[in-house]
Design goal:
The chain contains ten helices and no strands. With 193 residues, the protein is mostly helical. The N and C termini lie far apart (35 Å).
């Protein structure tokens, strides 16, 4: 350990450790790191650190199949909804995936339509490609009554465009988006979701 557990750099190091365990699907180890972050003396006082860790916690609970808890953890991410770095969309997409698992389809429909309006209203230029493409896929999923096979079949153009986009701009595991919507949809089609 390079930093004292009381320093703010320590909690940044925990983020890297968390992501390593998360992507390795070592969820128990990742949960221990979450709890260490929650206990950090600067957890509540360091701006957006607390809501970011609650997002990480929600993602982890989602991966563990604890959807009700994942949904509740999103309540603590509200400060991130105002940021300008894409956290808003990432949180909204996670919420939609959680709502699907909770079978709150009526709420999910509203959330899908709301995120579409949000992206159209707030994003412009190059930064809009991924969110807009994801919205096109979500709208097809909605129109196909949340059937994965039909959605994937009718979204091949968008999925290929995302694949090509990520060849030019590789997906960065240090990015905030821990659970990618298109991967989640494809995993569900293969029975892995």
């Amino acid at each position: 350990e390079r930093y004292s557990p009381k320093e703010s750099n320590y909690i940044m190091g925990l983020e890297l450790a968390f992501k390593l365990e998360f992507y390795r699907a070592e969820y128990d180890a990742a949960m221990k790191i979450i709890h260490r972050a929650f206990e950090h003396p600067q957890f509540e006082s360091a701006g957006l650190i607390s809501p970011k860790w609650h997002y990480f916690h929600s993602c982890l609970l989602f991966k563990m199949g604890r959807y009700k808890e994942a949904y509740r953890a999103l309540d603590y991410t509200t400060p991130l909804l105002a940021d300008k770095f894409g956290h808003n969309i990432t949180i909204r997409l996670l919420e939609i995936m959680i709502l699907y698992h909770l079978q709150h389809l009526d709420i999910m429909e509203t959330k899908i339509l709301n995120v579409r309006q949000f992206i159209k209203r707030t994003h412009q230029g190059e930064e809009i490609f991924r969110p807009l493409t994801l919205i096109k896929i979500l709208m097809k999923w909605y129109r196909h009554h949340y059937k994965f096979a039909e959605t994937i079949e009718n979204s091949q153009e968008e999925l290929k465009a995302l694949e090509d986009y990520h060849k030019e701009f590789p997906f960065d595991t240090s990015d905030f988006e821990l659970i990618r919507l298109e991967i989640w949809l494809e995993n569900h089609l293969r029975g892995l979701g």
